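User: I'm writing a tutorial on reading structure tokens. Could you give me a worked example: one chain, its sequence, then its tokens, then a sentence or two explaining what the tokens reveal?
Assistant: Sure. Here is the example chain.
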Amino acid sequence: MPRNLSPRPSATLFALVVLLGGGLAGQVRPAPLPRWDLGSGPAPVFARPALVPTRAGAPAAVRWYHGLGAMGAVALVSLSDESLREELQAHRSEGKDDVARVFKRMGEPTVYAVPALGTIAAGVILGDDRVTRAGGRMTAGLLTAAVVTNLLKPLVGRRRPAETGDAFEFTPFSNRDSWPSGHTAMAFALATGVGDELHSTPATVLLYGAAGLTSWSRLNDNRHWGSDVLAGALVGITSVKLMNGRWRVFGISAPRFLLEPGAVGVSAAF
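And here are its predicted structure tokens:
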């Protein structure tokens, strides 16, 4: 049997929250005041600077054909689900199991909830509404990913690879819950949420790399098929991009209160 690791995530998670809160507070600044030519007429009336940076351009529109293309990619990957599983299980080792045991934690509530809720708490303690809303966006994205994943699992009803050798065994509206991978969805939701708020390429690369290893851990542990983890990654990324205002999905936009102070409501355009 593989030996048990004794990781101590508490200190690491605390450090992540502190760094995230400090990084957001340092990077999210009020917009600079506009300049004007004193000789060209009266100076404009100044409004209070926005508490969140203005996003460049409108959110990217995700339309039905993007969704169709994504599902086509998942279907294509599913054709190699059985061969991928056989290859990974044939080369499974104790060392790989140890690595998988560490990285699968990124898809568990005790890990992914801490940065999001910790950022909200940091914003409240610091009295910085910008940081609080950043944590709200991350939390909303994680919740959306969790809801979508848990609605799809029983609806699709796919059997896990540990239960069957047939990758195409489905029992809709059952307790079969292989598709999509929940750990993968939440790991990519966390990576996307934190990366989009920090605006740091090295941090984003590391976050997505860790999320990718979470996906691999589910394959190594024989808990999911390859197409399960791809679908989970798509759910996680899309959920967060919708909630943080970077994507408009099928005409649905993020709640305005997550994007700007004092705003309420949601919008949809079909």
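What the tokens reveal: Residues 160 and 178 are 5 Å apart (CA to CA). The first strand starts at residue 60 and ends at 62.
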